[in-house]
Amino acid sequence: MTPHPPTNPHFPAENPPTTARQSPLAPTADDTEVRTLVTPDTLVTPDAPGTPGTLGTPGDPGTPDTPGTPGKWLPFLATCLGTFLLLVYATIVTVALPSIAADLHAGFGPLQWVVDVYTLALAGLLLGMGSLGDSLGRKRLYVRGLTAFTAATLACGLAPNVQVLIAARAVQGVAGAAMFATLLPLIGLTYTGRDRAKAFAIWGAVAGAAGCAGNIAGGILTHFLSWQWIFCGAVPLCVATIALSAKVLTRDATRPTHIDWPGIATFTLAALGITFGFIRGGEAGWSAPSTLLGFLVGAALLAAFLLVERSAARHPTHRPMLPLTLFRTPAFNGMLLAACVYYLSGFGFLPVLSLWLQDGAGLSSLGTALVITAQPAAFFATSALVGSALHRLPARWTLGGGSLIVGLGNLAFLVTAPGSSWPALLPGLVLTGVGAGLVSPVLPATAMSSAPPSHAGVAAAAANSARQLGLALGIALLGTVFHQSAPPPAPSPTAYAHALHTVFLLAATLALTGGLISTHLLSRPDRTENRTETRPTAS
Predict the structure, then answer these.
(1) Which of 11, 13, 47, 504 has its CA 20 to 30 A from that of 355?
(2) Could you tell me which residues are beta bridge partners of residue 52?
(3) Burial grade of 83 (CB within 10 A; 0-12, 13-18, 19 or more)
(4) Could you give the C-alpha distances from 278 to 207, 239, 344, in angstroms and in order?
(5) CA atoms within 13 Å, Cβ hemisphere of 238
(6) Which stretches of 299-457 are assigned E, i.e. beta strand?
(7) pTM confidence score
(8) pLDDT, tens digit, 9 for 90 and up, residues 428-461
(9) How far apart are CA 128 and CA 321, in angstroms?
(10) What is the per-residue pLDDT across 162-175, written as a single tens digit (0 to 9) for each?
(11) Contact 3, 16 (CB under 8 A)
(12) DSSP state, residue 22
């Protein structure tokens, strides 16, 4: 791939992207250009601490360390607390679902929305929130997002019915997207050189630990107190984080930026319509008018999103949320497919697995949390032990191969039988955790290197959105299949086992098929090698 003339001055033309098939270091810039890290274009995901493409990464000495002034790490503490809160709520409700169902008299469909609506908001709004941070200032958007997140968390704990809980979870997700889009730019604005590299490494560890902590905390609080405490118990920490963030975070300059509101709206509503179709299909049937309406509205809005983005790309002063020219690169498409399927197949089954462990295998919420934690523990161990070495391997083996291992992990779950208990699940949980741990460390770098320098950060954010969307669709699709195979109120052990087999077989098929296709796409030569970007830019 030859260098593309950048349309974004934050990515210098003298740093051409490397081939996406090797998941190498993405382009870096001079460390004196602080704004390179504080734009939404350089968003990196929590899977790769010190992700290539950030300034001051290991091996790049960058600028001298920040002077050792008292309290210099307090801004970093504020961002780590926000990261922990944001990511722990993606998993903390999983183990509490049976208790929520009993207390709020909720059916299986509403329970899926309790998990899914949070993830959908993250996936649909992450790209657009970066532009909003440019206009409002990243500190301002982060603090406002954290404040809204705190109010929504309290509302979740006080919810009198499942409808209010779902609405509050949606607000949590919107606020979480505002926080997620500004966290790393705030760190980059505050620290330089080795301090910045150290901050990103620790931040990545905190982000990884949040996934493990969510399951454990949800099980402990639900077991010893009640499910409401998984929300109310965090409010004091949220308030303390708001106070600390408002006091110590660096205030950045605002920069008027065009925000692609039509793109944000059509993409988010399209994802919502398709997910509604899957969930409604499990409740009312695939031929029900409401199910078909959800799919039709979702498809229509997806088509509208493509038209909106194409129109924005032709406008001299507008900037599309997701440039469609990226889809001309096979490696970019392969990366997105792998990001979607490994998250869908590796984590989409966790809500139904939690229900089976508690209702079918008779475990408590605490026991269920400890069993499920085997997966994030394997994920974290794999990423920590071999994560740095994975960058030296071709991306087709890491992204494609990791997705295939996730598929094999789902096949390992098929040993469950009507009389099985939790030990039968451990091989599958470990394998899916290992497969995900192979994909995650290299995903951001592969995404950034699959795009021209001007779109490297957008590509990384798109990869993160693809993962979250894959999780949302996985929860909806696999939950629907489980619901139809083991209808309530009290499925027999045989029905439970059959439902799990159906879920895991479908998840395995999607992961294996997606892994093979992504391996092929990541192996293809880049046919955009001689193409340059011609979209006009604003002066």
Answers:
(1) 47
(2) 54
(3) buried
(4) 30, 37, 14
(5) 26
(6) none
(7) 0.73
(8) 999 998 998 888 777 777 777 777 776 766 777 7
(9) 6
(10) 999 999 999 999 99
(11) yes
(12) G
